[in-house]
Amino acid sequence: MDLELLTFIAIGFLAQLVDGALGMAFGTITSSTLVLLGTAPAVASAAVHTAEIATTAMSGASHIWNRNVDRRLFGQLAITGVAGGVFGAYVLAGLPESIIKPIVTIYLAVMSAIIIARAFGWRSGTWRPPRPLLGATGGFLDAAGGGWGPLVASTLIAGGDQPRRAIGSVNLAEFFVTLSISVTFVTQLDLAPYAKLILGLVIGGALAAPLAGYLLRVLPMRAALVLVAIALTAVSSLNLIGLLR
């Protein structure tokens, strides 16, 4: 096994471990790392979306096995997420990142602050985000470059949902959202030259998915809230760095 493939496997493993346990950041971690290693942004995006079809399927299966999924919440997010994702892929694929990223970055920073407050005792009262609208918005922004996990998982948790059920349901729904977006995008691209990159991400993700589902099951709620907030802060920081370049 050559060093390049091992590098891609390591990237996929670490990214999926974070994403599977916290409900976010596979795309952000892998895309950012690949670009830093010299991969063209368009290639990194296409490869990550393709790999996510497999990694989200395995992650979702792990969460089902560990009983982290709320079926009703999953159904609401998956159906509307797919609709929003397909619409976003067809209509907004060409929308400049300069429009989407600042909005998403500010939003995630606010969600991070709310989640940290929850971890230390603050309660959000009776406010709950409308799940179908949240799913559609998450799918829409994911296709346009905003990201499914950070937006949807953070909003549910900030609104009072139990982290374990929210993250598990979001991860399972992400498979269907990713599949619909990837089919829309990838059918128009030739990914054969990047087979090694995609294979490495898939292998790494496959190794991490079972462990991530188990970690979420046994992780105390306060620890999960703090880790989600840290992940959100990291995602927001990466977005901000990208905007300032």
Brief digest:
By secondary structure, the protein is an all-alpha fold.
Task: Jot down its keywords.
0% strand; 80% helix; mainly alpha; 10 helices; 245 residues; globular
Total strands:
0
Structural class: mainly alpha
- The shape is globular
Could you list the spans in which at least 5 consecutive residues all have pLDDT below 50? none
Number of helices: 10
Could you say how many structural domains there are in total?
A: 1
Report, as a whole number of angstroms, the end-to-end distance: 36 Å
- The percent range for helix content is over 70%
- The portion of residues forming beta strands comes to under 5%
For the largest beta-sheet, the strand count, sense and barrel status come to: none
What value does the Rg take, in angstroms? 17 Å
Order of helices and strands: HHHHHHHHHH
Please, could you describe this protein's structure?
It is a single chain. This protein has 245 residues and is an all-alpha fold. The protein has one domain (3-244). 80% of the residues lie in helices and 0% in strands. It has helices spanning 3-22, 26-36, 41-65, 71-91, 97-119, 131-144, 148-158, 163-186, 195-218, 221-244.
Strand and helix layout:
Elements: H1 3-22, H2 26-36, H3 41-65, H4 71-91, H5 97-119, H6 131-144, H7 148-158, H8 163-186, H9 195-218, H10 221-244
Helix pairs in contact: 1-2, 1-8, 1-9, 2-3, 3-8, 3-9, 4-6, 4-8, 5-7, 5-10, 6-7, 7-8
